[in-house]
Each structure stands twice: as structure tokens, then as C-alpha cells.
Amino acid sequence: MTKNMRLLRNFFHYNLIALTIWNHVSLCMENELFTSVPNNFQEDALVKKVRSLPLLYTNSHQSKANFDWVVLQNTTESLSLSEITNYNVKKLVALLSNFRQGSRLQNLTLTNVSVDWYALMEILQTAWHSSVEYLSMNNVTQLADIDTFHFDYSGTSMKVLTMQKVLITDLYFSQDDLYQIFANMNIEALTIAESEMIHMLCPSYNSNFRYLNFFKNDLTDLLFQNCKNLMQLETLILQKNKFESLYKVSCMTKHMKSLKYMDMSSNLLSHSTDAVQCQWAESLSELDLSSNQLTDAVFACLPVNIRKLNLQNNQIASVPKGMAELKSLEELNLASNRLADLPGCSGFPSLRVLNAELNLILTPSADFFQSCPGLRELQAGHNPFKCSCELQAFIRLERQSGGRLFGWPAAYACEYPAEWRGTRLKDFHLPELACNTTLLLLTALLLTLLLVAVVAFLCISLDVPWYVRMTWQWTQAKRRAWHSRWEEQESVLQFHAFVSYSERDSPWVKNELMPNLEKGEGCVRLCQHERNFVPGKTIVENIIDCIEKSYKSIFVLSPNFVQSEWCHYELYFAHHKLFSENSNSLILILLEPITPHVIPARYHKLKALMAKRTYLEWPKERSKRALFWANLRAAISINLPTTDGNRCEETD
User: Fold this and answer.
1) Transmembrane region positions (predicted)?
2) Whole-prediction pTM value?
């Protein structure tokens, strides 16, 4: 866009500033505004009067009613008039007639104009042939009687016409009579704003318009369709109208060969994926489509040579890959949409600035900067960031981006989870172990292997497999024993004690223990495997059955005992009964001393029993044995029912 066009686009801003500086007194056009000026009015008096005004610029001023207008035309550059009606319009026309081409008056502002159609045209026509280059009319009420007017466009100095807040009270008129006047103006810039205008005709011939601004009207998709006479138009502003079809808007521009900037913001634009190919002007480089109803499909209907695109405040959820190939796009504004992630630059290789603020981005892609190597600035603040390991990867990339993240760190804060809400992303950190999946898996694997090794070591050292096997066998045998008892109805105790001993200690058991307990008065019925195990049952079942039918279990401890596998079984099952029935059924007889290092590691229960329970020690002295037998009988004393199968043997 040329420097002159930028000046035209910004004319309304600097013109108001200039008028504020240059104008201090409004010429109120009432009935007695213009009076005749005495012929002997001296120019030096006028100059003296002008110099007395508090002006910032000596080459611009305004006058009161009795100044000589002929003199004024040589000293005035800007003039502001207000309260213009049908009653004083002729005096205004007479005034403007004095400012012929070549005069210094260039800027004319008319405010609060309330006239009929012919008077309005007369004002425009007079200004058209004056020295005025910039004409601004604000708060214009066109009363009635719109009719055909043959406007003379020739010989004008006019460059810019601005009309704001125009109200037409005539309800019945030909639209051509109204719009043709403005459409055929041979000026560079035309603005008709805030005027409820519903249409504008295409110029009848190749127009000089380079700037058109129809801000805040009621224009629709019918505007400039198939119009071929706007070849020189560079800027078109249609903000805040009622356009609905993006495709028709593109067709409107296809003959505008010079169009560079277009503002379609704050309309009702939408586009569907099944629409036909859009037909934008190839020269269009800057397009504002903000505050519409556009979705992802908009990327199928964009100018191919666009350099600056504004899609802020729409309904875009993503940028479809492969749909748009905008090789010239340098600035893209996607703020206030519904994006869940940053779009990437696969279709925008020249992108330099991206705005994705105020979207729904929880975790930006960590490879974003890699896909956009030419990006100079990313605006992604004020999103509801989810502080997680994935976001931490994005934060690391920000530190490597060289300050390309605009608004960092103030605009970037956690929204989720709740415990991190309000925390700035620069202060968010998680341990490396929690975010590195490979490291986490490797650590978990090592811990698992370590756990397996520890368990294996404990299993070997404590003979856990043996205990598991024994528990299983005890459970199965117990179940079968219970089943057998249910059928046989035999649940009473039959023996005073079950005797467990090593086969190497059997002479002592047979020659000392059994004779002393089973013979004589108050005999003790003992369960001994050689005579009481039932043929056909497994050894484990017989052990469990004998322990269950016995009131006590006597264990004859010796170095031989700890070396016997079956003795260990019997001790294990008896220990189970001790805890399951909460009884005091174990009697330990220490036949020979046992040193702790002799007991295998897996016999930890035996170690515990010897450490916690008292035991009877077999005395070597014969004089002490009577007391031993008395204590043993006392430990197992209980009255059992007498049956034929469990009587004590008779003493010879």
C-alpha cells in the first residue's frame, strides 16, 4: 500500500485533529449569520483581529459573521460550519462560491446539516467546484424530495468526501437517483458511514476511487456484484454491515485488480466446505475477517496472495492440513477462536507472526517451533493451559526460542489441574523421572528386577517355596479330612498326644517315652506313626489326621530332629493348629542340646518356638527322671472317652 493511500485511510483521524487545532469558532448559520460587510472595511483591521485570536497556526483561522469573505479566502485553509438548514443554505452557497479553485481553503467540515435533497446537492455541487479538497459532513438529515439531479463532476479539486450519520426521511424515491450521485464521483476517497445505507451502485464508468469506506451500514451480499469499474480501488472497508456469504464477497472483488486491503469484520459471514471455488482479487494482500461466523472451512476460501489475515473472534476449531496453501502469508490472527492446539506452519511457509491468544489450547504441540522455523513472534497467552509433562516440553522449547513468545511470562499461566491454577508457566516444573517415559519405564523395570531379586533371595533363604507347598498340601489334606469326618461323624479326640521324632531317636521314644506314659495307672494314649497311620492315606494326610485327633503334640528335639524333613512337616502342621485353634497344644522335649547354627534357616519357626516357649529337657541323671515324667504327665493330663480302639496297653 502506497504512502498516499495510508494517508487517505487515516484521513478521518488526522482531519479531526487538524480541525481541532485549526478551528476555534464555529460559524453558526442562523438567519442573521451573514450580513453585508462595509466597503470601507480595512484589511489591516482584519489582520489585526486575526492576530488577536489564540491560534496555533497563523495561516489558518475562522471568522465571525461580519468578516469580509473575499479577504478570508486568501488566509483560510480549514473551515468548520454547523447548524445548516434550508433557511441559511443560500448564504452557505454564497460563501463557498467565494472559494474558487486556487484559494487556500482545503478542508471543509459541515456539522448538523438538515436540508432537503436539492439544497444538499447544491452544497455538494458548490463545494465540488471550489478549492475544497477534503469535505466532511456529519449528522446529515436529508428531509425529502429525492429526485434526479444532473451532477457536474468536471473541474473539481475534491479528493475526499466523508459523510457520517446520514438520515433520509423520504420513504418513496428511486434508489438510482440517490446512489448514482455518489457512485459516479470522480474522487479518490469516499466514506459513507453509520447511515443505514442498504445499497450502493457500481460506477457507470471506470472510477477514480482508491478508497471506499461504508462502515456500519446495512449493505448485503448484493453489493458490487459483477462490477467492473472499480479497477483502481485499493482499500475497501465494509465493517459492521450485513454480509453473509464469504463466497459472494470474494466474487465482489474479482474485478478489483488493484485491491490491496479489505475489512469485512463484524458481519455475518460464513462458508461451507461444499461451496464452489472462491474468486478473490489476486492483488488482495490484507484481509480482515474478524468477528464473523466462520469455521474451519474458511481456509478453503482465502486469497492466494494474502500476506496479512485477521480471523479473530470466529468459530475456528483447527486449521485443516492441506486445505490452504498460502505461501505469501506473513501475519495470521486466530485469537478468540476454539483452537485446541497451535496450527503449525505446513501451509504457511512464510509466516512471521501468529496470534493464538484466548483459545482453548491446553497443551501446545512441542514441535510447533520446528514446523515454523521462520516465525518471529508467537502470541499464545491467556489460554487455559494444562500444566503437565507435555506442556513442560513446550516450556523448554520457549527457552530455546530466543524470546519469540510474545507476552511471556505474564500472559501464560496454568488453568488445570486445580492445584497448579494461577501458576505461571515459567515457575511450573515436574521431576524428569515423571515426564521421561523411557526413563520411567527403565526405572520401573530396574525396581521390578530388584524386587524379584529380593523376593527370590528371601524365598531361597527362608525356604518360602517349601512353606507354600506345605500350606497347599495342608489345605488340601484339611479339606479331605473334614470331608471324611463329615461322612464318618468322627470329630472327638482319640489321643492324648501325637509324638513327632526323628527315626534316629526312635530307641528313646520306644524304650523310654512310650513305656513310661502308656503303662501304669493314669496311662496316656499316644499317637505314633508306626502303629496309628492309616494305610492308603498320604503321609501328609496321616500327619494332619493324627494332629487333629490328638490333644497335644509332643516334639522330641535333637540334632537329628532338625535334619528330618518329615519332622519339619509335623512341626509346621502342629504350629498351624496352634494358631488356628488358639490352643496351647505344643510340648517340646529337648532330648539333646541343639546349637542355633545347627538349625537350618528355613526352620525359623522352630527357632521362634525354642526362644519363646518353655521346654522339658531330658535329664541325664536318673534321679531327676521321675520329676521329668511327672511334669510331662501334668502337661498332657486330660480325660478322654474310652473306646475299644484307643485303650492303653496292659502292663505285664
Assistant:
1) 439-460
2) 0.63
